[in-house]
């Protein structure tokens, strides 16, 4: 009895939170299309998103390429299928591993940053101060950040993919004496638009999720420094979960289209 | 209640304001009228709902019931755009200064000007306006510093400069002297009086600092148990025999 009550209370809180977030997202769509637009702030936020995560994504991508190729070599050798390496690596990275890993990294880096930043602005009444000075803080702070992550994530992911493939080519070049030219020729033979486009669309949603959850958590931050920490932490946790949900849906939908 | 005010039109009026947070009934029918050119002090204990009242006043919090009129506009009936325009007529000094900590002092002062510059003075450029505002609070040298590099008193002055940069007709001060040493507090009070004289503004000052109230108030309201418990001048109230009123003035 106690248990079922606790479960009921928890799930009620969970769903009301989802409802609040959906409302927050709706408010974003309403305000993103109405003037005035904060262009300068949008560009600044795009720059910040890129600046904060470009090195992280680059390094992770490079290591991902190296490790993935090194790990796969023995298996492929066994089947005498090493020549398939470029196509296998590129397909799995571009379609699935790249977007998910880079988005998770950005969730940790950017999502938590947004959560903490907006959270502390909320707690120290900076958001209220904006509101009374006649600037809509939702537009200035939230809309620009969500747009920035949505636009930047696909770029970061494409860059990460490219660096990962370079890392893979490096291993193949050293171990299997495959020239870079040959490697990338094979990569571009294997990759179809039907691989890149769904992955890119997915990346937009990943970026949107990172910005949305970070902003939602920060903007609704509870009072006090504890609240800021929680906002930042919850932003990462919720975003990571949401990323997997989006990924699942994306794979599902792509699958239906491929069947057709 | 001053007879001289009877036939004047208030620039700001709160009528029977109610606001609760769950079972915490903070305001239970609070009334207030602010007349042109006066300094009205609202005193109340910590946690009595002074900040809540002032936040309802500018629409940062929705009141449960009651009417709030600013220059004859009922703020609950205004749309976002109209409210934004009306807010440029009001300067708000936050209890904790609330400077934007990711921006320099200059950018902090620029912020209200971004959208509403033409309200002030079309001929002057932003830089001149910012410098003028900083000069008024004696901090022109701090223009390129970050808020984190300022002392508490300096922050309060910058916040004051920011609140005044759009030349508002009404200024709301939420505990302007709290957390400052007595000398700095005096300086801030002096600044408030200078501003009042220079721009002939009407001010609503929230405080629990008796010294501040004595120096600056033309009229006072005591906020007790969520209502406007007593009205009067500082002298009238400080002589009162009511124990609830006396509690404010005994030192
Ligand atoms: N956002 C909020 N949610 C819930 N309760 C709140 C909120 N803001 C204020 N309160 C409650 O309202 C009451 C009044 O708070 P308020 O901040 O107005 O006090 P105050 O008179 O300004 O005190 P101080 O002099 O310390 O600033 C407090 O009991 C507080 O717990
Ligand atoms: Mg307060």
Automatic annotation (TrEMBL), chain B:
UniProt superkingdom: Bacteria
One Gene Ontology term of the molecular function aspect: ATP hydrolysis activity
Entry keyword set: ATP-binding, Nucleotide-binding, Transport
Pfam family, one: ABC_tran
Domain ABC transporter: 12-250
SUPFAM superfamilies: P-loop containing nucleoside triphosphate hydrolases (SSF52540)
InterPro entries: AAA+_ATPase (IPR003593), ABC_transporter-like_ATP-bd (IPR003439), ABC_transporter-like_CS (IPR017871), P-loop_NTPase (IPR027417)
Record flagged with keyword ATP-binding: yes
Protein name per Swiss-Prot or TrEMBL: ATP-binding cassette domain-containing protein
Natural source organism: Spongiivirga citrea
């Amino acid at each position: 009895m106690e248990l079922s009550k606790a479960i009921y209370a928890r799930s009620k809180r969970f769903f009301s939170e989802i409802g609040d977030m959906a409302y927050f997202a709706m408010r974003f769509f309403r305000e993103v299309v109405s003037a005035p637009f904060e262009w300068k702030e949008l560009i600044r936020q795009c720059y910040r998103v890129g600046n904060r995560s470009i090195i992280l994504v680059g390094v992770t991508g490079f290591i991902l390429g190296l490790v993935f190729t090194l790990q796969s070599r023995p298996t492929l050798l066994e089947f005498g299928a090493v020549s398939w390496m470029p196509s296998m690596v590129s397909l799995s990275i571009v379609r699935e591993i790249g977007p998910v890993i880079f988005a998770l990294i950005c969730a940790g880096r950017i999502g938590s940053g947004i959560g903490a930043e907006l959270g502390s602005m909320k707690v120290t009444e900076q958001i209220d101060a904006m509101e009374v000075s006649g600037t809509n803080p939702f537009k200035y702070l939230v809309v620009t950040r969500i747009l920035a992550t949505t636009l930047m994530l696909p770029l970061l992911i494409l860059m990460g993919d490219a660096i990962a493939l370079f890392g893979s080519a490096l291993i193949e070049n050293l171990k299997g004496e495959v020239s870079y030219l040959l490697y990338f020729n094979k990569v571009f033979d294997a990759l179809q638009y039907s691989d890149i486009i769904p992955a890119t669309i997915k990346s937009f949603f990943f970026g949107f999720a990172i910005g949305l959850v970070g902003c939602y958590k920060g903007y609704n931050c509870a009072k006090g420094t504890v609240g800021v920490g929680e906002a930042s932490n919850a932003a990462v946790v919720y975003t990571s979960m949401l990323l997997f949900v989006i990924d699942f849906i994306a794979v599902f939908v792509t699958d239906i289209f491929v069947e057709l | 209640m001053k007879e001289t005010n009877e036939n004047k039109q208030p620039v700001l009026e709160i009528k029977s304001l109610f606001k609760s947070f769950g079972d915490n009934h903070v305001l239970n029918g609070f009334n207030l009228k602010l007349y042109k050119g006066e300094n009205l002090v609202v005193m109340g204990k910590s946690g009595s709902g002074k900040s809540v009242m002032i936040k309802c006043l500018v629409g940062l919090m929705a009141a449960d019931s009651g009417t709030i009129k600013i220059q004859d506009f009922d703020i609950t009936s205004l749309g976002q755009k109209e409210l934004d325009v009306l807010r440029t007529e009001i300067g708000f000094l936050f209890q904790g200064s609330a400077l934007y900590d990711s921006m320099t002092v200059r950018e902090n002062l620029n912020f209200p000007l971004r959208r509403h510059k033409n309200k002030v003075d079309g001929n002057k450029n932003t830089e001149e306006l910012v410098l003028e505002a900083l000069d008024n609070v004696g901090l022109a040298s701090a223009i390129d510093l970050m808020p984190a590099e300022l002392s508490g008193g300096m922050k309060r002055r910058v916040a004051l400069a920011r609140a005044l940069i759009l030349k508002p007709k009404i200024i709301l001060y939420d505990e302007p002297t709290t957390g400052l040493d007595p000398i700095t507090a005096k300086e801030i009070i002096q600044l408030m009086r200078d501003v009042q004289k220079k721009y002939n503004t009407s001010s609503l000052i929230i405080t629990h600092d008796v010294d501040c109230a004595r120096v600056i108030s033309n009229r006072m309201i005591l906020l007790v148990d969520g209502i406007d418990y007593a009205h009067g001048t500082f002298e009238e109230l400080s002589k009162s025999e009511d124990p609830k009123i006396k509690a404010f003035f005994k030192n």
